[in-house]
Fold this sequence. Notes:
By secondary structure, the protein is an alpha/beta fold. The chain has a single domain, classed as UDP-N-acetylmuramoyl-L-alanine:D-glutamate ligase, CATH 3.40.1190.20. Helices cover 35% and strands 25% of the residues. It has helices at residues 28-36, 55-63, 127-136, 150-155, 157-164, 174-181, 186-195, 235-250, 255-272, 286-300; strands spanning 3-6, 10-16, 19-26, 43-50, 66-74, 81-86, 93-99, 119-122, 143-147, 169-173, 200-204, 210-214, 217-221. Strand 11 (200-204) and strand 12 (210-214) form a beta hairpin. Helix 6 (174-181) crosses helix 7 and helix 9 packs across helix 10. The N and C termini lie far apart (54 Å). The mean pLDDT is 94.
Amino acid sequence: MSLIVVGTMAFDAIETPFGKSGQIVGGSATYVAWSASNFVRPVNQISVIGYDFPQEELNALAARGVQLEGVQIKQDEKSFFWAGKYHMDMNTRDTLDTQLNVLANFNPVVPDSYQGSEFLMLGNLMPSLQLSVIKQLKQRPKLIVMDTMNFWMDIAMPDLEEVLKEVDVLMLNDSEARQLSGQFSLVRAAKEIRKMGPKYVVIKKGEHGALLFHEENVFFAPALPLEDVFDPTGAGDTFAGGFIGHLAATKDISFENMKTAIIKGSALASFCVEKFGTTRMKEITISDIDQRVQQFVDLVNFDITLTNNI
């Protein structure tokens, strides 16, 4: 039940209506690894960092069963950095600064020890790099899940189209689904996107939940109503980690089990937003996750008697 995770390990500086984080550890692969390692180990990490990435963070990940052989360390360069400011609705944000640093010339390499992994999570990254990892695998994984964003649709659409042909599940948010498909209806958007290659499409809607599409089947998972949303930066990656982590742990890639994976991912994302960065992910236990999943079940569970009205 081995899992490869590809993405960024980076620094963020977040500003929300509730405070400022200063420089903290972030990155798509970081969040995915913290989330997925609740369910499956090892997590075989592929990323790149600079000399400035904290050793204690690497030690903490290693203690969670995250294998770091595929993490390149550029001793003469700085780690990737992103700064952003969220608006009051916490769904829109402005990018204040982006410094590619080590990411500018990153060429991911799949170590021999990672070969044969059954699951692959392609975190948000340049599509050409995502495709590069797939091409390096000697044996196709049981399931390939990919996350992407509108930025790549704007500047690297041909590369994105190529990698979409190779993946099983595509994750993206509602505005990105509309941009990629050219359709306003998310049902039609998912149908158009599936024509591009992915058999399954997961459309994230932030505080409004997530949708899973496969053939004629649709599943909707609500988001848990939270009193405080402190920092949504890593929520999507944490969701992805919970999703792929559950599937890798159960080795069941049926539509029915993906429903459970969506709920597990949503539960973990609901923890992530409660504090800046990965802070909350380092605090929670399996018991906490189980209780949060039960809250999701209670949220949508009801009994109803259907009557024939004449």
